[in-house]
């Protein structure tokens, strides 16, 4: 089978077939009527600034989508934060991109949601190790989208092997409860020793220590078993068994220190979100965040024509005319008509495609630096808020 998992192939997306049916019918109607107006369209989530910022990403895939089509596209830089106004502007004959709207919005909406949620986790503990553990909650075909969004927002790593191959990064992770079950209760030390002897030396020795006994007992046993080779313990206790999770982690930390294992880190996973990170960040050294990222709502982008044949136009509830957005000197987000003077600050929309040619380069490290710097500038989820 050429497509055993029933996913939409890239060829269909590039051809414009991954679309809503009414766009195909719009094309048929306009072609029959001999109409193909020159338009400017904008992608927005909110018309005016709201004060609630999201992370913009997915722009690289959009550039690929428009490559070879007779349009000009401007967009925010990858990783920029926004809270209103256009994030992208498209200009050209309407039928050059009519059917691309559905895929275009999908390329932006879900990754931007993932990235925004990952940034919330990052900002909850700026100095802690935070990893993306969410790939198991999404279709495997988009795992690399989740992991890229997480890296963009400053997370320190991820767990998905195939995504790592796509992104040119090595996936991280140590052991699941299944490994512990295979050795059985009372043989936890054998499981940790077997792991230590089997995996490469550069893999951190992080022992899972909440499988059969209480977290303190297993953590101390892991420290006694591996000694100086143990880098840390991972507590993955489910929410139904946690009680006061902060107290559990504090108790583990206390007993490790009391027995001379001050250098053993504590890593927390299992239902971790920004609020729990803020509660634990002073007693734990790292966090694995999964469903908070993958369950994030997509950013509700829409595409609307704002100028037709040089004249402003809009549907009810939307703003007509070509617009520009700015990052003001005080960290604000300002929307203005593009042909008017803007405020003191930086105009954010930059060339992406010119007459079908991609004119921007994409660098994940640069985008991540931009994201984190902009989050600081706009006060995105100030730590402790």
From TrEMBL:
The protein's GO terms of the molecular function aspect are: nicotinate-nucleotide diphosphorylase (carboxylating) activity
Its GO biological process terms?
A: NAD+ biosynthetic process
Q: Which residues form the Quinolinate phosphoribosyl transferase C-terminal domain?
A: 115-304
Q: Does the keyword Glycosyltransferase apply?
A: yes
Identify the domain of life. Archaea
Q: Which UniProt keywords apply?
A: Glycosyltransferase, Transferase
All copies of the Quinolinate phosphoribosyl transferase N-terminal domain together span 20-112
Report the SUPFAM superfamilies cross-referenced here.
Nicotinate/Quinolinate PRTase C-terminal domain-like, Nicotinate/Quinolinate PRTase N-terminal domain-like
- What is the protein's given name? Nicotinate phosphoribosyltransferase
Name the source organism: Natronobacterium haloterrestre (Halobiforma haloterrestris)
């Amino acid at each position: 089978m050429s497509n055993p998992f029933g996913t939409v192939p890239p060829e269909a997306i590039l051809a414009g077939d991954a679309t809503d049916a009414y766009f195909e019918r719009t094309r048929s109607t306009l072609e029959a009527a001999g109409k193909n107006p020159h338009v400017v369209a904008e992608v927005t989530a909110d018309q005016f600034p709201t004060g609630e910022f999201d992370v913009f990403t997915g722009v690289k895939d959009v550039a690929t989508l428009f490559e070879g089509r007779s349009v000009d596209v401007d967009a925010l830089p990858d990783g920029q934060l926004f809270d209103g106004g256009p994030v992208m502007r498209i200009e050209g004959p309407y039928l050059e991109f009519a059917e691309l709207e559905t895929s275009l919005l999908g390329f932006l909406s879900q990754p931007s949601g993932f990235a925004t949620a990952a940034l919330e986790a990052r900002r909850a503990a700026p100095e802690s190790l935070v990893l993306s553990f969410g790939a198991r909650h999404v279709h495997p075909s988009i795992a690399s989208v989740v992991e890229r969004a997480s890296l963009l927002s400053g997370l320190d790593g991820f767990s998905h092997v195939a995504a790592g191959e796509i992104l040119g990064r090595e996936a991280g992770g140590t052991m699941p409860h299944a490994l512990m079950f295979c050795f059985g209760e009372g043989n936890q030390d054998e499981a940790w020793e077997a792991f230590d002897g089997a995996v490469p030396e550069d893999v951190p020795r992080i022992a899972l220590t909440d499988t059969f006994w209480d977290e303190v007992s297993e953590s101390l046993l892991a420290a006694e078993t591996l000694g100086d080779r143990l880098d840390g313990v991972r507590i993955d206790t489910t929410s139904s068994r946690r009680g006061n999770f902060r107290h559990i982690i504090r108790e583990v930390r206390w007993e490790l220190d009391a027995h001379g294992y001050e250098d053993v880190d504590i890593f927390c996973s299992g239902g971790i979100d920004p609020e729990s990170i803020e509660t634990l960040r002073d007693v734990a050294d790292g966090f694995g965040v999964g469903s908070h990222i993958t369950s994030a709502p997509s950013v509700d982008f829409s595409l609307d024509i704002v100028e037709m044949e040089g004249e402003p136009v809009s549907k009810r509830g939307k703003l007509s005319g070509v617009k520009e957005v700015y990052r003001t000197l005080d960290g604000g987000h300002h929307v203005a008509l593009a042909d008017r003077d803007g405020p003191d600050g930086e105009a954010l929309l930059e060339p992406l495609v010119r007459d079908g040619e991609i004119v921007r380069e994409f660098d994940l490290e640069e985008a991540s630096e931009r994201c984190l710097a902009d989050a600081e500038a706009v006060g995105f989820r100030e730590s402790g808020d």
